[in-house]
Request: fold
Amino acid sequence: MTSKQPALILASGGFNGKLAKTAFGLIRSSERFQIVGVLDPEQAGQEAGRIVDGKDRGIGIYASVAEAYAQAEITPEVAIIGVAIAGGKLNDNLRCAVTEALRQGLMIVNGLHSWLAEDPEIVALAQHYGGSLLDLRKPRSREQLRFWCGGILDVKAPRIVVMGTDCALGKRTTARWLRDACQAEGIKTELIYTGQTGWMQSAHDYGFILDATPNDFVSGELEGAIMRCDHELAPQLILIEGQSALRNPSGPCGAEFLLSAQAKGVILQHAPARELYKTTDRPWPMADIADDIKIIQLYGSEVLAVTLNADGIAIEYREGVRVELEQRLGLPVFLPLEQGVSNILSLMRDFVAREVQP
Reply:
C-alpha cells in the first residue's frame, strides 16, 4: 500500500472510551487511513487526540460532514463508522451521519454486525451520489474460505499472541506497540490482524476478521494468513492480535491461536480492577488470572509476560498493583500505557532465540 486514504470517523454522540474503541485505535495509528477528522456534534471544536490520550495530533472534531469538508486541511474520501452500538445496528445519530457522508459521495467503511448493503435507503443513497459501501463483517463466500491443513507446522517464524483475560482490554493496541518496538530494534516483526479495527489500521492484508468467519473456517483462515505472511515477508517474529478471552462466557476465544496458529508465546493482557466479564446481560465474575495462565500452559504455550490495563486504579497505586501481581504470579508484569513496552523486548528476543534453535 503506497498511500493512505484520507478518512473521516463517524462517532456521533459516542466519541468516548466506552463506545469508540475503533475510533480511538485509528486516532492512535493507522497505516491504511489518514484520519483527517472526527464527526461528533457533542464535542465539536475539540482536538481528537487530546480526548484519546492527551496527545494533540491536529485532528479536529466537527459537528457535521459539511463542516469537516469546509474546515479539514485534507478532504476525506472515506467515512469510517468508529463506534460500537448495542445490537450492532445504526442508531438515529449514526444513520444521519452515514447519509450525510453518502451525499458527499464518500465510501462508508462499516465494522458493525449489521450490513449497510442490505439497507435499501442506504444503498439507494450510495447509488445516487456515487458513494460506496464496505461491510467488513460480511462473511466471504465459501469458495474464498479455507480449512486448516497443517501447513502451520512448516512456518518458520515463531508466533506470539497477545491474549486477554476479557474483552476490551487493549490487546490490539498492546500488540501494535510491541510490533512497533520490535521493528524499531531491528527485529523484523509482522502483526496478524483478527478484527475489523485491526484491518483498518493495517497496511497489509495478512489477517482476517474472526467474528465474521463461519466457525468451521476460523482455524484455516488464521493458518492461511500466517502462512502467507511467513512465505511472502519472511519475518523473524509474527505477532497475532487476540480476540475476546478464554473464559468470557459471551464469546470464549483463544484455543485457535494456541493450537491452530501454534503460538507458543503469549502476552496476557489483564485488568486487575475489573470484577465482572464484559457480557451482554447477566453478571459473571472474572476468573483468577492464575487459572488462565494454567489453561494456556495446558495447551503447550508459555505466558512470557502479563500486561496491565489499569483502568479503575488510581495512578498512584498502579505500580504497587503491578509489583503485587508480579510477585503472586511469578511472571514479569508491565504497565504498557504508563511505562511503554521496551522492557518486554528482551523476553521476546529470548523467546525467538529459543524457538528458532534446530
The radius of gyration is 20 Å.
